[in-house]
Amino acid sequence: MNDLEKLRNLLLKEEQESLSKLEEELNNLKKDLKNPEVIVEKISPLIFSILEKSYTKDKKLLVDVLSPIVLELIDRNYDESKDKVTKQLAPLISIAIKEQIKSHKDEVVDALYPVIGNMITRYVTKTFEDMINSINLQIRNGLTFKTLKRKIKAKYHGISETELLLKENALTNIRAVFFIHKETGIVLSHKEHEDNKINEPEMIASMLTAIRSFVNDWVDKNEKHQEINTIEYGGSKIVLESSGYSYLAVIIDGAVTNNTINSIRKVLSILVSTYSNEIKNFNGDMQNIPKEEFYEIISQLISKNSEKDSKKIHPLLYLFPILFISYISYIVYNNIIDSKLEKKANDILYKDSALTIYRLDVEVKNKNMKINGVVPFSFYKDLAYNNLKEIKEIVSLENNIQVIDSFNNPKDIYDKITYLTLALNIKEGNGIEYSYDYPNAKIFGKVFSKKEKKYVQEQFSLIKGLQNIEFSVEVIPPSIDDIIYFEQNSSQILPNQEYKLINIINLLHKLDEDLTLEIQGFRDYTGTIERNAILVKERAENIMKYLKLKGNVSQKLINVGINDIPKNIDEQNYPEQGRRVIFTWKK
Predict the structure, then answer these.
(1) Is 412 within 8 Å of 422 (Cβ atoms)?
(2) Candidate from 118-122, 309-313, 493-497, 501-505 with smallest mean pLDDT
(3) Angle, helices 201-221/105-140, rounded to nearest 10 degrees
(4) Please, what is the angle between helix 201-221 and helix 82-103, to 10°?
(5) Euclidean distance between CA atoms 373 and 381, whole angstroms
(6) How, if at all, do strands 236-242 and 230-233 pair?
(7) Coiled-coil stretches, from where to where (predicted)?
(8) Of 513, 506, 458, residue with least CA distance to 482
(9) Please, what are the domains in the chain?
C-alpha cells in the first residue's frame, strides 16, 4: 500500500464503512424480494393500517374497490369445491335459521307468508281431491272380491258402503308427538315411532312455531279468527292442538279422524291440568319441568297407535288363502291326470277279449296305478299286468287282482270255460273244444304235446263249481307243411331253403321226444331211374344230418326214399317241383 492509498483510507474511512454497510443491506433486500412470505410479513401491517384508515374515511369507496375481488374469490372457491362449501355452510345456516326464529319471529313470518299461504290453500284442496278420487276408484272397481267383501261388511255393520269407504280411507298412523312451549318454541318433550326416529326435534319445533305464527297471521288477515289446526307436508299431516301456554304437534300418516283429534285433546288436557304452573312459569330452563312425566303422558298417543297396528292382520295370514287355492289347484290337476290314466288303462283292458268278461278296475293316485278285481286263473292276472305295464306315464303299478274260484253259478262257470278255451287255443297246434251241461263238462279236441295236455287238464281243474270234467283230448303233433327243393342232379341243401329247416327245428323242440318223423324224398322227370334213386336217398340223408347235427332234435328220424314223381305237379312249367323232400309223422 502506497502513501496515497494510506492517506485516502484515513480521510475516507467513515464513508467506506457506510458504503459497505449500505451494500450489505442492499444485498439482504434483494434476497427478501425473492421470498414472498417475507414480503407479506413486511407489508401486511401497512395494508391493514391503510384499509383501516380507508374504511374510516370512505367506507363506500373501499367496498366498491374490494367487492369484485371478493366475489370472484367466492365464485372460484364454490366452483372448485361445491360439496365442501355446502358442508361448511349447512350447520351455520341451520343455527342461523334457529336463532332468527327465536329472536325475529315476526320477520320470518313476513318473509314466508306469501309462499305458505298459497301452499296451505293448495294442500287443503288437494286433500279433498285425493279422497274423492280414491273413493271413485274403489267404486269403479266393480264386482271384485274386495268390493263384495266391503258390501257384506257394510250390511253387517248397518252402514252404507260410502261410509265404509270413508272409514277405510281414514286410517290413522301417528309417527311423532311434540309438546312445545308457545312463548319460547322449545320442545318440552317429544316421542317418535320406533320406525321413524327424528334427529333434531328442537329444529322441527322451532319451524313449527314459526309456521304456526305466520299461518295464524295469514288466517287473521283473511278475517277467520281461529288458530291453525293441521299442516300438510308431503304425504303426512301435522296436527296442532293449542292451549294457553303450550301446544301439541302430532305428525300423522293418513287421514285425521275425530277419534284421533279427541285423543290428542285428551292428552293435552291432562298435561295442562296437571302441570299448568310448570308450563306457565317455564323460562327456558329444562331442569324446572317434569320431563319424564311429560314423556309418559304423550307416549299414550304412540301406544294407542301401536295397539291398532298390532290388531291388524299379519301379512303372512294372507298367504294362507293363496296356499289353500294352490293346494286345491294341485289336487284338481292331479285328479285330471289320474282320471286320464284310469280311462286309458280301462280301455286297454276292455279291448283285450280275454279280459273283457272280468270286472277289473284300475285306480290311479298321483300316477301310482293299482289293478283291482277278481279272475279265476293266474293267467288272466298276469295278462292284465303285462298289458298295463307298458303305460309310460305311471310311476308304479301294483297288481291287486285276486285269483279266486267263487263263481259257482252256471253262467259264471260257462263263461270261465269259454274264455279259458279261447285263451288256450291261442297257442299254435291246439284245437280244444268243450260241451257243458251244468254241473258237468266234457273237454275234447287236440293239443300238440303231452306236456300241453297236462297243462290244459290243470287249468280246467281250477274251475270251481264243476262236479265232473271228462277229458278226451288227443295229442296230435301239428303237420309240417314246409317242402325242401333241390337243384337238378344235386342233393346239396340250397341256402334259400335253410330257413324252412330252422322253422322245423323250432317246432320239433316244442313237441314230444317219442315222436317219429318220416323224411320222404321225390324225383323229377329227368334222368334215369337208377340215378334218381341215388339222389332221392342222398337228399333225405342230408336233411336228416342237418336236423340232427345243427338242430339237435331228439325225435326219431326215418329216411323214406320214394323214387317216384309227386302227384299234381306241372311237368312243363315247373319240372323242379319234383325234386323235393317232405315230412310226415309216423302213426
Answers:
(1) no
(2) 309-313
(3) 90
(4) 60
(5) 9
(6) antiparallel
(7) 12-39
(8) 506
(9) 105-311 (3.30.450.70), 326-403 (3.30.1340), 410-475 (3.30.1340.30), 484-585 (3.30.1330.60)
Return phi, psi of residue 363, to 5°. Answer: -120, 130
Can you tell me the distance from the alpha carbon of 371 to that of 388, in angstroms, rounded to the nearest whole number? 9
Distances (CA, A) of 163 to 151, 158, 372, 468: 11, 10, 62, 91
Q: Is 231 exposed, middle or buried (0-12, 13-18, 19+ CB in 10 A)?
A: buried
Chain centre to alpha carbon of residue 321? 17
225-280 per-position pLDDT tens digit:
455 577 776 667 888 888 778 888 888 877 777 888 888 888 888 888 888 888 88
> First vs last Cα of the chain: how many Å apart?
178
Say if CB 566 and CB 580 are below 8 A apart: yes
Return the ∠ at Cα 314 (arms to 311 and 317), rounded to 5°.
130
And the C-alpha cell for 587? Answer: 302213426
Three-class secondary structure assignment of 173-184? EEEEEEEEECCC
C-alpha cell at 262: 279427541
For cell 295236455, what's the residue? 453
The predicted-structure confidence for 172-218, as pLDDT tens digits, reads as follows 778 888 888 887 778 888 888 776 666 666 666 666 666 666 556 65
User: Hey, what's the torsion of the CAs at 482, 483, 486, 489, to 10 degrees?
Assistant: 160
